[in-house]
Amino acid sequence: MRWIAIWVLAAALLTTPAGAQTAGAALDDARALDAQIDVFFQQGRYGDAEPALRRALAIYERALGEQSPEVAVHLNDLSVALYAQGKLAEAEPVAARALRLREATVGPSHPDTALSLDNLATVYRAQRRLADAAGLHERALAIREQAYGRDNPMVGDSLLGLGAVYREQGRSSRRARTKRSASPCRSVWPSSIRRSAATPRRWRSRGARWRHRKPCSGATTRSSSAP
C-alpha cells in the first residue's frame, strides 16, 4: 500500500506541471493571435481577422471556460469582424451570445454590457429589425448615462446609433436631441462600420480604451477596468 501511495504522488508531481505548461502554452498562442488580430483590425483586414479570432476564441474557451470574460471579448470582436464583411446572418448569433455572456458575468447594467447592446443593435439595424435595434440602443444609452454622465463620448456613441435608427423609423421627435448631444463625438462602430478606416479592436471589445480614438472636445476620457 505504501508503494502505491508513493507511486501516485510521484505521478501527480510529474504530470501536473506538464498539464499546466500545456495550458500556459495554449494561452501564449492565443495572446500571439490577439496581437495579430489587432494588426488586422487596424488595417481593416476583417477577413483575415475572422479565422484568427475563431482560433483564439476556441483556445480561450478550452483554457478558461465558456463563461470567461476573455470569451466575451472575443465573441464581441468576432461579431464586429463578421459585420464588417457583411456576414449579418453569422454576426447576429455571435453578438447575441456576447451580450448574454456579459449580462450573466458582469451584469445587465455594466458598461461592457452596453457595448454589446449597441453592437447587436447595429446588426439588427442592418437587418431592418428597427424596433429591436431601438430598444437595445435605448438600454445601452441608459446604462452609459448612468455610468459616465450625459457628456461622455461613450454616451455620444449610443446616441448616434439610436438617432440613426430613429431616422429610419421616421421618428423625428427625438432627432434634434440626438443630433445635438452626439454631434461633438466621432464614432465608427455603433452607427456603421466605415471600412476605409480601422476599427480598433481593443476599444470596441473592452470598453472605453481611448488610445485609438480622438476624444470629443470638452469631454473627459476614462479607461476601462475590463481585463
Report the strand count. 0
Give the strand content: under 5%
Low-confidence runs of at least 5 consecutive residues? 2-16, 178-204, 206-227
Terminal residue distance:
47 Å
Shape by Cα distribution: globular
CATH class of the largest domain: Mainly Alpha
Domain count: the total is: 2
- What structural class do the secondary elements suggest? mainly alpha
What is the arithmetic mean of pLDDT?
75
CATH architecture of the largest domain: Alpha Horseshoe
The description of the largest β-sheet is: none
- Overall helicity: over 70%
- The CATH topology of the largest domain is Serine Threonine Protein Phosphatase 5, Tetratricopeptide repeat
- What kind of assembly state do the chains in view correspond to? single chain
Radius of gyration equals 21 Å
DSSP helical segment count: 9
CATH superfamily of the largest domain: Tetratricopeptide repeat domain
What's the helix-strand series? HHHHHHHHH
